[in-house]
Amino acid sequence: MIELTQQKIEALAPNAEAAKKGRDLVKKNKFANLKINAEKNLIWGECAGSGKTPYYCSADYVDEHNPVFRCNCPSRQFPCKHSVGLLYSYEADATKFVEAEVPEDILTKREKIEKKQEKKAQEKESIKEKAEKPKKVNKAAFIKKIDTQLIGIETAQKLLRDVVTTGLSAIDVKMRSTLKGQIKELGNYYIGGIQTTFNNLLLSLEAVEDEQYTEVVNNLNYLSALLKRATDYLTARKADPEATPELSSAIEEQIGYTWKLVELMQYGQYEENATIVQLSFNSYDNPARKEYIDEGIWLNLKTGKIFKTMNYRPYKATKYIKEDDSVFGVLQLKDLYIYPGDTNPRIRWEADGSIERPLQKEDFATIEKWASGQFADTVKAVKSTIKNPLADKHPVVLLSLHKAYLNGEDLVVEDSNGFAITLKDITERAISATANLRAFLPAEAKGISLAVMMHNNVVTGLLSAQPLSLITSEKIIRLLY
User: Fold this and answer.
1) What distances in angstroms separate CA 27 from CA 22, 82, 348, one per listed residue?
2) What architecture is the 259-359 domain classified under in CATH?
3) What is the pLDDT of residue 123?
4) What is the DSSP string of 234-254?
5) What pTM does this model have?
6) pLDDT, tens digit, 9 for 90 and up, residues 277-327
7) For tag attachment on the chain, is the N or C end more exposed, with fewer CB atoms within 10 Å?
8) In terms of DSSP H, where are the helices of 345-463?
């Protein structure tokens, strides 16, 4: 049974523009010969286009959690505006859809999908089987790759020395152009993460105003630490190719490695039947990677661990990669894969292995249970983390509040021991999470949890927290969106 709302359709559309164009098609009465099957899980019809022949589109909900959209138009978007418009037509007036037999071409495509799903299920079992087997390493190929990476790192170190020797203020437009070409060459050495870090440095140089080099210096320090750590790490890996890679940090990805699911399982970076809830969601631009990033903050209701999801949308493919959206329920996952990392490791799962249910009263109680009521211990752990030059400088933690008050212009929260943390936005945005919170956070805040992103101001020495969401016994209030 197809159940549609405008909110669900907007979530399925690849972007806001496709949703708008789909609505416009309905308003212009572009759809005809609208049909629905007896099982009420497939709709199809024709949509008039610019040519003589209409487009033939359908929405197949045989798997309600993973609908399949088909259209013979040339668009590379999935679903295209015609399929989105078909959904809006059904949502507006389902009675316009006349019951009919499923077309032969769709029956054939359904059979192919069933076979693919069976194969995928077998592959998943194969992943588990492979994970249980000892990992075999081709030592010669492994060492050859590391040698190439170490040569690339030497090249990167020379490039960094040239930047420092030249002097930041002496790096003009011409030299930045030369640097850009040299950075591009780093892509030949399997060190994509290091290459991205150099791009970050170049962007910070281009953004300098009034001789303010703080961000440039931060990038230089990070890059210097990364090159040294990468050299030591890869040298050790070369000496013992069969040793377990480092899993407590993201050093492999920071260098440029891409993890495979079977590897995550082999190293125990995997959890079955996980239950997670999204605490916060935000999309932002990363010019260094030339892509947009959708970042979700998630709490594992069983373990209390806070994770991140990162959906990367390269500039060139923005129209064709669906933007992630907020999730307001609880996800029950068959398989949860956890990438190596420190405080908030990255996670992923397969869409067909997830079921969403509404948040229940006991879920809010569980969230409160995992929130820290000992701010001193939390701050100590955060400071220990950010001392590592390669660790995430903005770890996310969950705080259990006792009191809230203004200290001058600053909003402050306390635990039951009177330990205080100042709330401040990390960067200036059109939406101020702290200002939003200030408008309604009660002075007596017992029973309320706050998801925050920590930030250490190197100039003032103040460790503050940017609020992301407020969790009460009944709802999650998002402050940053």
Assistant:
1) 9, 13, 38
2) Beta Barrel (2.40)
3) 58
4) HHHHHH-TTSPPP-SS-HHHH
5) 0.76
6) 999 998 888 776 678 889 999 999 999 999 999 988 888 877 767 778 889
7) N
8) 361-370, 375-386, 433-438
